[in-house]
Amino acid sequence: MPVRIGIDGGGTSTRSLIYDDEEGILAEAGGPACALSGGLERALQSIGQTLEQALTKAAEHGRPVPARPGAIDAVCLGISGAASLPAGQPLSEGVSRFLGERGYPVSPERILVVSDIEIALAGALGGAPGVVLIVGTGAVAYGRSPGNRTFRADGWGWLLGDAGSGYDIGRAALRAAFAIQDGRREDKTSSGLVAAVTAHFQVSALSQLVPMVYEGRIKVSDIAALSPVVAELAAAGDPVCLAILDEAAEALAQSVLAVVSRLYSGEGEGERPTGPIPVSYQGGVIRHSPVLRELVVRKIEAKGERLGVRCRVKPPAYEPVVGALLLAGASPEKL
Amino acid sequence: MPVRIGIDGGGTSTRSLIYDDEEGILAEAGGPACALSGGLERALQSIGQTLEQALTKAAEHGRPVPARPGAIDAVCLGISGAASLPAGQPLSEGVSRFLGERGYPVSPERILVVSDIEIALAGALGGAPGVVLIVGTGAVAYGRSPGNRTFRADGWGWLLGDAGSGYDIGRAALRAAFAIQDGRREDKTSSGLVAAVTAHFQVSALSQLVPMVYEGRIKVSDIAALSPVVAELAAAGDPVCLAILDEAAEALAQSVLAVVSRLYSGEGEGERPTGPIPVSYQGGVIRHSPVLRELVVRKIEAKGERLGVRCRVKPPAYEPVVGALLLAGASPEKL
After folding, report:
1. Which terminus has fewer CB within 10 Å in chain B: N or C?
2. Residues 6+ positions from A232 with CB-CB distance below 8 Å
3. Which of helix, strand or coil describes residue B168?
C-alpha cells in the first residue's frame, strides 16, 4: 500500500490529502495560508501542521501510514509563487525533514514542488493536457500541450494584470458605484450597486470609503471580496453588474485564447488536436458565479471559432489539491 | 496701489503671485509641494517660502509692498484637499501671522482659502461661470453655475475614481504592455508600447517591473508619469495608445457632462444658458497631449448635443495661480 500525499499550499489556506494506492483517499486536513511571500519557515509551518493532522486522522480512521522507508511513495506540493522563486529545493528538503522527524522517511527526490497553477490544471483536467483558467482574487490562464509544452497568460497581479479577476471585478464595482453617484454614467439605468457596496463595507455613504481606501484599511483581498456582491446583483439582472462581469469574462477568455494560440498553433504536427481542446476552470470567483461562468464559456468558444480552433469548456474534474495527488502518482480511478 | 496675492498650493508645487491694482503682476515665486496630507505646518512652510521670495523679488524690481495695514488688500489661497478638510481657518490665520511678522499686517478675514479646483476654474474661465476639467495625476470636473451653485464629478483618487487621469492612462499602458507580451490582445497590431514602457522604467524586460510594483517602488505618481509616453506614441499613430487615450477621453467627457447636467438642467430659469456653456481644462496631462485634448473636446461637444446642451470648450484663459489672484479681486484687464 504505497502512500501518496498531495498538498495545496495556497495564499489563503493550505490543504493536505493522504492517499493509498489501494484504498484511495485516507484523510484530509486544512490549515492557514502558505504564501511564500510570508517566508519559507511560515510556509513550512502551515504545511507541517496540515500534514500532521492528516496523518493523525488516517491513524484514527484505522489506516495509519506505516513508519518505514518507502511507505510514503511520493509527495506533490503545489505552492503559490513557486514559479518565480527558487524555493523548490528548500521546500522539498523541509517537507522531507518534517516527515522524517515524525518517523516517515521520504527522500527529497520523491517530494515534487510545483506551482499552484500546475496542480490546478492537473486537478481540473484530471491530469490530461489542456488549459485551465483560474479566477480567484487574481486571475491566470495556464496550459500544457500534448507535447508537454506549457504557457501561462496573465497572473501579473492586481496592478499589472489579473485581468477579469475578483479584484478587477471588485475594483470595477467600486468605481462604478462612485460614477453612478456622480452621474457620470450615460446609461441612466438604476442599479442596486451603490446600496450593495455601502452595505458590504458597512458604511452609510460611499464617501466614507475614501479615507478607508487611501489609508490602506481596504486591501486587495477586501476589494476582491466585493465580487460575490456583483455576481449576485448580475444574477438578478442588474445591468451595471452584468456589464462588469461581461468585461471580466472578455478579459478571462482572452487569457485562455492566448494560451490556446500559443500551445495549439500547430508548431509540431503532434500538437494539432483532432478533437476539441479541453479547457476548464478553478477558483472561487468563477465557481460561485454562474453568470460569469456562462459568459466566459460562451466567449472562449466564440473566440476559438474565430481563430479556427474548437475549445470545449468542461467543469473541473477535481480540486487543485487532488491535482497534486495526481501529480504524485495517484490513479484517477481511486479518487 | 492695493496689493493682492494669489497662491496655488498644489500637491507637487506651490506658487505665489503678487499683483498690484495699478501695475498688474509685480512678482512671482515657486516652491515645493503643499499637500495638506503632509500636515498643516509643512503646508504653511511652503506657502511662507514662496511668499517671502515673491515679496523680495517685488522689492528687487523696485516695487516693494509697503509694510503698513491695508497695503495688502486680499490673499486667495487655493489648496489641494481644502474641500474635505477643515483647514480654512488655521491656514488663513497662519498666512496672516506669517505676513504680519514680516511687517505686512493683513487680517485673516482678508485671506480666502479655497479648494485647488476652485482656483483652477477661476483661472481657466477668467472668473466666469462654467465647467473646468482638471487632468493631472488625478482627474476631476468642477463647475459653477451662473446662479453660483457648484458641483464636482469624480476626483475620488486613483482607486475609486480619477477616471481618465494620468494615473489611469499610465495604468492602462502598463496593463496593455503585459497583455501584448502575453498575446492577450485580439488586435494583433504591433505597438511600440512594450519597448516604450521598459525604456521609461529603465528595465530590460517587463517582468522586472513585477517586484518593483509590488514592493512599492513604483508609486501612483510614477505610473502617471507614463502618460506622456502614451501621448507621444498615440500622436505617432500607435493604435494601442490611441485606444487608451480614447477610453480616458470618454471618461473625462462623462465627468464634464455630469457637471453640466447637474448645473444646467434648468432647475431655475436663470440657469438656462442662452449661449453655449463655457468649458475649459487645466492640468499637465491634458495640456501636453493634443491627441487627448482633441478627443475630449469632440466627445464633450457630441455628448452635450445628445443631451440637448451646447458646450463650447475653450483653452484655459489663465493658470490656477492666476485664478487665485482673480478670486482675490484682481482685474482680468491687468493680467
Report:
1. N
2. A196
3. helix
As given in the structure block, the three cell numbers for residue A241 are: 453588474
Q: Does B255 contact A184 at a Cβ distance shorter than 8 Å?
A: yes
Q: How far apart are CA A32 and CA B273, in angstroms?
A: 63
Q: Strands A3-9 and A14-20, how do they pair?
A: antiparallel
Mean pLDDT to the nearest integer, A108-112? 92
Share of chain A above pLDDT 70, in %: 95
DSSP B8-73: EE-SS-EEEEEEETTTEEEEEEEES---GGG-HHHHHHHHHHHHHHHHHHHHHTT-PPPSSTTSEE
**Residue B109: CB atoms within 10 Å:** 9
Neighbours of B75 (CB within 10 A): 29
Tell me the C-alpha distance between B308 and B300, whole Å. Answer: 12
pLDDT of residue B250 exceeding 60, the answer is: yes
Q: Is A254 on the interface with B (CB under 8 A)?
A: yes
Q: Give per-residue pLDDT as tens, B161-218.
A: 999 999 999 999 999 999 999 999 987 777 899 999 999 999 999 999 999 999 999 9
CATH code of domain B128-316: 3.30.420.40
Beta partners for B130? B144
Please determine, for residue B56, whether its predicted confidence score (pLDDT) is greater than 80: yes
Helices (H), chain B: 40-60, 88-101, 116-124, 157-160, 166-182, 193-200, 209-214, 220-224, 227-235, 239-263, 284-287, 290-307, 320-327
Contact between A105 and A99 (Cβ < 8 Å)? yes
B219 to chain A: closest CA residue: A159
List the grid coordinates of B9.
Answer: 498650493
The fourth-level CATH superfamily of domain A129-316 is ATPase, nucleotide binding domain (3.30.420.40)
Q: How far is CA B212 from CA A68, A140, A168, in A?
A: 47, 20, 21
| A124 has a pLDDT exceeding 80 | yes
Burial of A271 by CB count in 10 Å (0-12 exposed, 13-18 middle, 19+ buried)?
middle
In chain B, domain spans: 3-125+319-334, 128-316
Judge: B153–A262 Cβ closer than 8 Å, yes or no: no
Q: Which residue has the cell 525533514?
A: A97
Cβ distance of A186 and B261 shorter than 8 Å: no
Mean pLDDT of B64-68: 90
The CATH-assigned architecture of domain A3-125+319-334 is 2-Layer Sandwich (3.30)
Cβ distance B178 to A154 less than 8 Å, yes or no, reads yes
Question: Band of the pLDDT at B82, cuts 50, 70, 90?
Answer: low
Strand pairing report for A3-9 and A72-79:
parallel
b/e map A209-240, b = 16+ CB within 10 Å: bbeebeeeebebebbbbbbbbbbbbbeeebeb
Residues in chain A with CB shorter than 8 Å from the CB of B257 are: 184
**How many CA atoms lie less than 13 Å away from B139 in the CB half-sphere?**
31
Query: Residue A90 corresponds to which cell in the numbers above?
Result: 528548500
The whole-number average pLDDT for the span B94-99 is: 94
Tell me the chain A residues in contact with residue B156 when contact means C-beta distances shorter than 8 Å: 178, 210
Please determine whether the domains at B3-125+319-334 and B128-316 fall in the same fold group of CATH. yes
What pLDDT shows up at residue B264?
A: 87
